[in-house]
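Bumping my old thread because nobody answered last time. Still need a sequence for this structure:
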């Protein structure tokens, strides 16, 4: 769900800190060394015991990668944390071999084709990491395809100044924005295509499609999500659009849907216990409008419950 146009300038500045951010990793989740600054390498870990799935591949965008949650490897531009939900799942399930190719800014096209987080950075297709002996795959993707959340976070927060008590973004999107019904269908098709590509490469793997944590509250407003008062319903409609699309994609395939939107009810940006960071990027905590460590722990726990529920 990375708003790519907002994410890239922030990470471009933070990449200067990559050495410091990637040097303090420890234990079995230590990121693999990057062969060059232009290639964002996957993190590959070998667990000390063989109690869980044999090979687990984690795929997805920034809501799976966890930018700026300590400790984040910024080299190459993927901004992948060693405490994102895939890393927590791998440790808790005792996965023998864990490959994390999540990458901030990824779209469904980047799952099956190369990604360029920055002009000098090239990331191989995420699906290349999936092999026939893969037992478990998690993927969180789709939010970047039509810039839905970039619209919410970029356009809608910018338009607030025009009419703070009204709904300037809702009015603007009615004139020029995407049709949300059509957007649901398009994203569902894109994600379905990705899930089928994974199934072809690893037909026996359990595949979990992981949804997105909620940003907007059910009621009320807050400074950490600076929308015009009347635009909060539009924020909820955008999130619902994405949730419907992902549900449809999982239904069309053999994937299990992890409904992070339902899971995070009461933990939106404006809540007393948010699982997503607000408008201020906080180094060592989380990127603006991206999951906090608490959100990653909650998603990991739900993924683990659903994996165990479907284990033969």
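Sorry it took so long. Here it is:
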């Amino acid at each position: 769900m990375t708003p790519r146009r907002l994410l890239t300038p922030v990470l471009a500045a933070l990449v200067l800190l990559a050495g410091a951010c990637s040097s303090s990793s420890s234990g079995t989740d230590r990121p693999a060394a990057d062969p060059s600054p232009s290639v964002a390498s996957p993190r590959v870990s070998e667990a000390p015991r063989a109690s869980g799935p044999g090979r687990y591949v984690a795929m997805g965008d920034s809501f799976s990668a966890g930018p700026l949650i300590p400790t984040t490897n910024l080299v190459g531009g993927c901004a992948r944390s060693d405490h994102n939900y895939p890393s927590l799942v791998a440790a808790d399930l005792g996965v023998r071999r864990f490959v994390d190719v999540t990458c901030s800014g990824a779209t469904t096209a980047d799952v099956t084709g190369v990604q360029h987080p920055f002009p000098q950075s090239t990331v191989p297709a995420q699906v290349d990491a999936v092999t026939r002996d893969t037992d478990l795959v998690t993927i969180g993707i789709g939010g970047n395809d039509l810039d839905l959340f970039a619209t919410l976070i970029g356009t809608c927060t910018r338009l607030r100044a025009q009419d703070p008590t009204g709904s300037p973004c809702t009015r603007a999107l009615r004139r020029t924005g995407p049709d949300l019904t059509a957007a649901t269908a398009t994203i569902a098709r894109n994600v379905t295509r990705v899930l089928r590509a994974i199934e072809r490469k690893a037909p026996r793997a359990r595949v979990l499609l992981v949804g997105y944590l909620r940003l907007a509250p059910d009621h009320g407003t807050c400074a950490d999500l600076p929308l015009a008062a009347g635009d909060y319903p539009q924020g909820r409609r955008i999130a619902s659009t994405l949730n419907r699309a992902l549900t449809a994609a999982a239904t069309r395939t053999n994937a299990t849907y992890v409904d992070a939107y339902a899971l995070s009810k009461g933990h939106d940006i404006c809540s007393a216990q948010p699982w997503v960071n607000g408008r201020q990027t906080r180094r060592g905590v989380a990127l603006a409008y991206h999951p906090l460590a608490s959100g990653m722990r909650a998603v990991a726990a739900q993924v683990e419950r659903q994996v165990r529920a479907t284990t033969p």
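The chain has one domain: 4-309. Let me know if any region looks off to you.
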